[in-house]
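Next comes this protein.

***
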Amino acid sequence: MNKLFVAALKEETPGLNFFQHIGVGKINATYNLNKLIHRFKPTEIINYGTAGAIKKDISGLVECTKFYQRDMDARGILNLKLGETPFDNINEIINSDEGLSCGSGDSFVTKKIEMNVDVVDMEAYAIAKVCKLENIKFRCFKFISDNADENATSDWIENCKNGAKLFQKKIEEI
């Protein structure tokens, strides 16, 4: 099986030199992931990165299996719900009911959000959707670096190294 390991930033993967970095945000992730798929032709993509916990009892390294686009807001037309894209039949991606839900959006969360998800990040939904469309197996691991609150920025910087060490151990299992 040809596995491709992707993360948004080099800062999230200190010491993990086998990662490809796809950039921050849904557009950068989509564009750069498509280039990597064309180049490496993987059968499985494994995403690792940091995430903010919306639910305060979540910590450490977690696996996300449900993905939502938290900043797609077209509720004013066609009776759509938050996260639904007009004229797109893929509005959620659920790989398993066993893991956590992740709401991706192009903003760093520092306050309460409207969407009911476990964690937030800036790329996982985009990666999951590309994998679904390209029929590539997808797994997603997030290190909870902050609580998506007013302290999120300073917590994130301090926690990147801790998360990379935990993910290195997880790789041995998968």
Remarks:
- The longest strand covers residues 44-53.
